[in-house]
Amino acid sequence: MLVVSDVSVAFKSLLLALFLSTFPLISSCGTTGRSAGLTPRLAHCVASPVSTIVCSTALGLTGTKAGGAKKAGMAVRGPLLKDELDIVIPTIRDLAFLEQWRPYLSPYHLIIVQDGDPTKKIHVPEGYDYELYNRNDINRILGPKASCISFKDSACRCFGFMMSKKKYIFTIDDDCWVAKDPSGHEINALEQHITNLLSPSTPFFFNTLYDPYRAGADFVRGYPFSMREGVATAISHGLWLNVPDYDAPTQLVKPSEKNTRFVDAVMTIPKGTLFPMCGMNLAFDREMIGAAMYFGLMGDGQPIGRYDDMWAGWCCKVICDHLGFGVKTGLPYIHHSKASNPFVNLKKEYKGIFWQEEIIPFFQQVVLPKEAVTVEQCYIELAKQVGEKLNGLDPYFTKLSEAMVTWIEAWTELSGTAKKSDATSNGSVN
Amino acid sequence: MLVVSDVSVAFKSLLLALFLSTFPLISSCGTTGRSAGLTPRLAHCVASPVSTIVCSTALGLTGTKAGGAKKAGMAVRGPLLKDELDIVIPTIRDLAFLEQWRPYLSPYHLIIVQDGDPTKKIHVPEGYDYELYNRNDINRILGPKASCISFKDSACRCFGFMMSKKKYIFTIDDDCWVAKDPSGHEINALEQHITNLLSPSTPFFFNTLYDPYRAGADFVRGYPFSMREGVATAISHGLWLNVPDYDAPTQLVKPSEKNTRFVDAVMTIPKGTLFPMCGMNLAFDREMIGAAMYFGLMGDGQPIGRYDDMWAGWCCKVICDHLGFGVKTGLPYIHHSKASNPFVNLKKEYKGIFWQEEIIPFFQQVVLPKEAVTVEQCYIELAKQVGEKLNGLDPYFTKLSEAMVTWIEAWTELSGTAKKSDATSNGSVN
Questions:
Q1: Does the keyword Zinc apply (chains A, B) (predicted)?
Q2: pLDDT of amino acid B426
Q3: How would DSSP label each residue in B257-316?
């Protein structure tokens, strides 16, 4: 019976091969060929039913490095993309949370952006490789262009994106801890982000079984074959168990609400759809979209706060849509430990709550010219339109528009010919 | 400490009330007012943290009716929308699967559309209230317009939609069984569909914590307050555990793949995004969108099959987007027992696999005129555009365009002045 079954499967495969070879349109983009557009290593990852294990092999990782992810029933393995990813953390306090993350994050290089008082000493747990920048460093490195980097607001994290020279960034807040999945196993958030970034997105058509590239899933009936290759993923937006990312009014109304629902899904946010991007647990391909990952003017001296990541998300999404990049949301979860003070938040968000009612329609309608083919070009065009169309809302948007241009200038300088040695941090590089 | 906390919460509420009353824009659409646009009964359902229980109370159900849903730790209660919902089942065989569904479906009226040989006797389990239509009935009731109803294809189910006089429809295939959630409890699929249909959708902006109206969830930071009322939901698309709804090529390549991932989420499919709507486990508001829920010309005498629900889904989605109705997907799951034969399927899907590569761009670009303000008007316009723009693909689309018009004519006749008595079934109505 087993033999018959095997023959049957072999016959089916043969028939399909014949079918697909007969119709090249399908064979070039069909189910079997859906990983054709991926890099070779990604193709291996995706095609395998045990992708997470094969991934590490395909990436040439040895599995012997200390500090790799541990999962029940899975051997310890080396950290994925160790030399291609920086972790950016904005903070005003000691980074005790890194102790819990040690098995997952310690192999990676940290870029710490110290907010607030530069004279305060930030303690980083031993064994972490890091560079640390405070406000004095930012002023020294950027000179007059430092005006585009926010002060006394976690928006300052984008300075870390600028200083990185790696392809990928994972950014996490210092009140985010390792979450557990429903079976009680710790979630390696970074590993999931990397999986998300290394597998394609599907922004042009919704797949009802969510991420078609996950093991055990695929494209469902009716999904056009020509779209099954997907597009490259620029952003992976992770979620939060425990304290959800609510605005001040919702925090006030539901002071005790906790997010306990573990939704086992990753999905592409469709083209043309905006979303509220939270910077708490976020990863992205810096080479693809980093230039648009600007967190705006927030905090000290600015009329609003807590819209830094939202602003970056809206800008990034319209640019990703224009350039055909993918944005994913869903897994991984982190455990968000404490809600920020809703009264303080209300003060920060106050104007943003009104402004977003006009900002969202602006972003929903924005059209970028065909000539804008790089993220930098798109961003400059967006800055121009922000200055033109949102300035009636408040003079702040003129200032923001100018800061967006300054950001791109600084980004281009630092990402361009400037050598890393010209812009050293004052942190300890282990 | 508890007292202080209570005072604090009360004070927060007071402050928010003051804040919201000061800014009427927010107060009319803010978090506390998000259910303002719902019907009173729905507002009760949504606002409560124990919504499923309060729902049944708010709906005036007694909880004494036999056959209500049973959940661990939850009292038996009366069936939701018992007199407002019909269950439509297309079949060619005995409906043994209804035995397993008895606790959940037996309180509802069934409309059975018998496909294939009209002389065959379909056995319906005792105790079910039903009407049954075979091909002879369809021909008798619709006369020449019966040509728009497919034969030897489950597309014939849409005749049942036409015959119903209820506000809501749940349609399910006869190889779908009761699924279990990860905790081992049976899933009352219909109850979840009703919850989906009675709570709003959010098609204009993505909420990263999925359905904001579920207990324990809400709109996240950055979600515009003016969009938090949502829009009425027209369609609830449920999913499948066990055998996934794959096309023939994917079935052939992955003959043994099972869907074992229970994703605990319901979400709105954003405006402007198409999806592959499967008719296996589907509910909709017949008054809102029924006229567009036409499953096309499939099966006997037609060049394709297995695109019936896809066609309906594409048509419905563009019309829902045009009219501002919501479409949800996700929960509930059913257990899909057996994969259909991939070889037979390949024959049926063959042309559709090619055609959909042009059909999808057509639907993605279709624009309905502002003057089309009813589903019927939208559908007639869509039929016209199908005839004009897809006829180059195959003469079939001219025929389909005409059938779409015939469908609307028949729908209008039967939904209009025609009395139910003019169109009796030959089934046993208990």
A1: no
A2: 47
A3: --B------EEEPPTT------TTEEEEEHHHHGGG----S-BTTSS--S-HHHHHHHHH
Which among A9, A19, A259 has the least Cβ separation from residue B209?
A: A259
**C-alpha distance from A292 to closest chain B C-alpha (Å):** 18
**According to the model, what pLDDT value does residue A340 have?**
83
- DSSP symbol at A420: G
Residue A45, pLDDT score: 34
- Residue B357 with chain A: CB contacts under 8 Å: 25, 224-226
pLDDT at B73 over 90: no
Closest Cα in chain B, distance from residue A346 (Å): 10
Cβ atoms of residues B180 and B186 within 8 Å: yes
Cβ-defined contact of A252 to B206 (cutoff 8 Å): no
Give the residue from A171, A339, A330, A174 showing the smallest Cα distance to A238: A330
| CB proximity under 8 Å: B 185-214 to A | 204-210, 214
Confidence of residue A83 (pLDDT cuts 50, 70, 90): very high
Quote the pLDDT of residue A266.
98
Q: What is the pTM of this model?
A: 0.84
Instruction: From B65, B166, B150, select the one nearest B110 (Cα to Cα).
Output: B166
Judging contacts by C-beta atoms under 8 Å, the chain A residues touching residue B19 are 249, 346
Dihedral of alpha carbons B384, B385, B386, B388, sign:
positive
pLDDT, tens digit, 9 for 90 and up, residues A160-216? 999 999 999 999 999 999 999 999 999 999 999 999 999 999 999 999 999 999 999
Distance CA B331, CA B190 (A): 10
Separation in Å, CA of A393 to nearest CA in chain B: 16
Nearest chain A residue to B307 by CA distance is A222
What is the C-alpha to C-alpha distance for residues A74 and A125, in angstroms, rounded to an integer?
Answer: 27
Chain A from 44 to 63: CB within 8 A of any B CB: none
Question: What end-to-end distance do the CA atoms of chain B give, in Å?
Answer: 62
- Residue from A18, A183, A208 whose CB has the most chain B CBs within 10 Å, to mutate: A208
* Residue % of chain A over a pLDDT of 70: 78
Domain annotation for chain B: domains and CATH numbers: 1-78 (no CATH), 85-414 (3.90.550)
Q: Which among A182, A309, A356 has CB closest to B224?
A: A356
Q: Give residue A299's pLDDT.
A: 92
Q: Is the pLDDT of residue A72 over 50?
A: no
- Point out which residues pair with B131 in neighbouring strands: B111
Joined tokens for residue B412: 């209008």
Q: How far is CA A416 from CA A203, A296, A382, A410, A411, in A?
A: 31, 22, 22, 10, 8
Burial of B33 (0-12, 13-18, 19+ CB in 10 A): middle
Cα(B355)–Cα(B302) distance, integer angstroms: 14
B124: tokens are 């319906």
B74/A contact by beta carbon, under 8 A: no
Q: How far, in Å, CA of B332 to CA of B181, rounded?
A: 10
Looking at chain B, which residue has its C-alpha nearest residue A350?
B19
Model confidence at A77, pLDDT cuts 50, 70, 90, reads low
Contact criterion met (CB below 8 Å) for A271 and A317? no
Rounded to the nearest angstrom, the minimum Cα separation between A128 and chain B is 32
Residue A361: pLDDT band with limits 50, 70, 90: very high
Which residue would you say has higher pLDDT here, B116 or A426? B116
CA–CA separation, A395 and A297 (whole Å):
13
Q: How confident is the model at residue B231 (pLDDT cuts 50, 70, 90)?
A: very high
